[in-house]
Design brief:
The structure holds two protein chains of two kinds. Chain A contains eight helices and no strands. By secondary structure, chain A is an all-alpha fold. The longest helix of chain A is centred in the first third of the chain and has 40 residues. Chain A is elongated and about 65 Å long. Helix content of chain B is about 35%, strand content about 25%. In chain B, helix 7 links the parallel strand 7 and strand 8. In chain B, helix 6 runs parallel beside helix 7. Classes of the chains: A mainly alpha, B alpha/beta. At the A-B interface, helix 3 and helix 4 of A face helix 2 of B. The structure holds adenosine-5'-triphosphate and magnesium ion. The site of adenosine-5'-triphosphate (ATP) has 12 residues of chain B, from strand 2 and helix 1.
Chain lengths: ~260, ~250
């Protein structure tokens, strides 16, 4: 009895939260397309996000390419299929692994950062102070951050992918003595429009989800320092979950359009 | 300041009710604030003082009741008109609420963003406002480099920059040592003299109330329990009122 009550309550809050998140997203679109636009703050946020994540994304991308190639090599060699290496690596990294791994890293970095920042602004009444000074805090804080994440994530993912391919090329250069130029040539040739386009479109949605969930959790943060921690934590959890859902939908949709 | 029935109050609350679930915080709370006066509101912690002033500036919505500010019913205002009205009200938050990612200068410039003419001479205004709280030297510091008392003053400068007609102070002296508290109180009096504002002051600090109040209201059990000058309330025979003056 007690357990079923708990479960039903949990399910109820879960759906309530989804409803609130959708409402929050609708409000974002409404406010994003009405004047005044906070262009300067948007640029500042873009710069901040890029600046904060660039090193992390580069390192992750590099190791991803390195490890992925190192581990695939023996298997491919067994079948005498080393020649497939560049196309296999490029397609799997550009299409799937690169975007999702880098988006997850950014969920940990950007989404939790936004959650904590807006959360502490809520708790210390800074958001209220903005509101009473006649500035719309939703526009100034939320719209700029969500837009910045939406714009920056594709860039970060492209960067991460490129560095991952570089890591992969390094392995091939050291182990298989394939020259960089030849390897990159093969990598680029293997990539089709139908690999790159869905991955790029998807990464905009990843960025949107990361920004939106971080802002949502921070903006409606509960009082107290516990609230801030919770906001930042659940921002990561929810946005990571949302990333997989978006990825699933993206694969589904691109399957219809491009018949993988 | 004598109450005169012919003068219209700048701020008027009628039968305000506000509850959170089963917690009835405000029950038929009514009050008036007249031009140029310092009205002190006292009440125990958790009695709903902050909730009441948040309803005043539209940060919270009351369940029922009317709030008129400078003749306007705030529940009937559009967002843009509410924002215009808000710039005529200075609100000093309980915890100062400085924007901690901005310098003191940027903090003060922030409220000017929506006022084109004022934004053009923002440098002068920032300097003038910081000078009036005696903190010009802190202009390029970040909020976390300031002490509690300095933060309170910067916050005060930030609310003053729009030259508000009504000032609302939420516990301006709480958490400060007695000397700094006195300085803040003196500042509040200077401000009132200089800009002839009407002030609504929320405080626990009996010394603050004695010095600054023209009139006082005790908020007990969610309503306007008693109203009068500091002297009148101090000499009251009522048990609940007496407990405040011990
Ligand atoms: N957002 C909220 N949600 C639910 N309850 C709230 C909320 N804000 C305030 N309350 C409740 O309203 C009551 C009054 O709170 P309020 O902050 O107005 O007290 P206060 O008189 O300002 O106290 P203090 O002197 O400590 O600042 C408290 O019981 C509090 O629990
Ligand atoms: Mg309070």
């Amino acid at each position: 009895m007690a357990i079923s009550l708990k479960v039903s309550k949990g399910i109820k809050t879960f759906f309530l939260e989804i409803g609130e998140l959708i409402y929050f997203a609708l409000r974002f679109f409404k406010e994003a397309f009405t004047k005044p636009f906070e262009f300067k703050e948007l640029m500042r946020q873009c710069y901040n996000m890029g600046n904060k994540s660039i090193l992390l994304v580069s390192i992750t991308g590099f190791i991803l390419g390195l490890v992925f190639t190192l581990q695939s090599r023996p298997t491919l060699m067994e079948f005498g299929a080393e020649a497939w290496m560049p196309s296999m690596v490029s397609i799997s990294i550009v299409r799937e692994i690169g975007p999702i791994i880098i988006a997850l890293i950014c969920a940990g970095k950007i989404s939790s950062g936004i959650g904590a920042e807006l959360g502490s602004m809520r708790v210390t009444e800074q958001i209220d102070a903005m509101e009473v000074s006649g500035t719309n805090p939703f526009k100034y804080l939320v719209v700029t951050r969500v837009l910045a994440a939406t714009l920056m994530l594709p860039l970060l993912i492209i960067l991460g992918d490129a560095i991952a391919l570089f890591g992969s090329a390094l392995v091939e250069y050291l182990k298989g003595e394939v020259s960089f130029l030849l390897y990159f040539n093969k990598v680029v040739n293997a990539l089709k429009f139908s690999d790159v386009l869905p991955a790029t479109i998807k990464s905009f949605f990843f960025g949107f989800a990361i920004g939106l969930v971080g802002c949502f959790k921070g903006f409606y943060c509960k009082k107290g320092t516990v609230g801030v921690g919770e906001a930042s934590n659940s921002a990561v959890v929810y946005s990571s979950m949302l990333l997989f859902i978006i990825d699933f939908i993206a694969v589904f949709v691109s399957d219809i359009f491009f018949e993988i | 300041m004598k109450k005169d029935t012919n003068i219209k109050p700048v701020l008027e609350i009628k039968n305000l009710n506000k509850s959170f679930d089963n917690n009835h915080v405000l029950i038929d709370f009514s009050m008036d604030l007249y031009k140029g006066e310092n009205l002190v509101i006292m009440g125990k912690s958790g009695s709903g003082k902050s909730v009441m002033i948040k309803c005043l500036v539209g940060l919270m919505y009351a369940d029922s009741g009317e709030i008129h500010i400078m003749g306007k019913d705030i529940s009937k205002l559009k967002q843009t008109d509410l924002n215009i009205l808000r710039t005529k009200i200075g609100f000093l938050f309980q915890g100062s609420a400085l924007y901690d990612s901005m310098t003191v200068r940027e903090n003060l410039e922030f409220p000017l963003r929506n006022h084109k003419e004022m934004y053009e001479n923002k440098d002068e205004l920032v300097i003038e406002s910081l000078e009036s709280v005696g903190l010009l030297s802190a202009i390029d510091l970040m909020p976390d480099e300031l002490s509690g008392g300095m933060k309170r003053r910067v916050a005060l400068a930030r609310t003053l920059i729009l030259k508000p007609k009504i000032m609302i102070y939420d516990e301006p002296t709480t958490g400060l040592d007695p000397i700094t508290a006195k300085e803040i109180i003196q500042l509040m009096r200077d401000i009132q003299e200089k800009y002839s504002t009407s002030s609504l002051i929320i405080t626990h600090d009996i010394d603050c109330a004695r010095v600054i109040s023209n009139r006082m209201i005790l908020l007990i059990d969610g309503t306007n329990y008693v109203e009068g000058t500091f002297k009148e309330l101090e000499n009251s025979k009522d048990k609940k009122v007496k407990s405040f003056f011990k």
